[in-house]
Amino acid sequence: MELLEMGMIPQAVEAALEMKNMEALLSLLSEMTPALLTEKCSRVLLLCTTQQLAADLSTNEPTEGLTTRLDWIKNMVVHILFNSEKDENPDGKVEEYVKIVMDSVKDCILSTSDRLQALALESENPGEYKGALTDLKMLHHMVP
Fold this sequence. Notes:
By secondary structure, the chain is an all-alpha fold.
């Protein structure tokens, strides 16, 4: 949080990721917007953040809420796939890494979708999962 207060957003995100603590990452993200994160952080940091959020979502109910978590993931995926500079790394290593990480994110999206469909079947109000399932379906089609 000190790094964030000093305006060192990429360093703050990297430190939170290195801690391997979801609460620390979520606490940091709660202090910024997806737009600020995508503007200030490298593609690799966005990939790592997306992977952590998606992996956690595949097994846990997000403390910040399903809609908020999916908004973060959608914003970062769109930025990674469509807005990031493709020539950050001319030797193609970043593109290889993007493919590997996005495969993992896609697997997490499928797991989350399966988990939410099961919850919807057990729920007295299955419609509460409709928006999230729609977002997951869109992400599944978007992620290569």
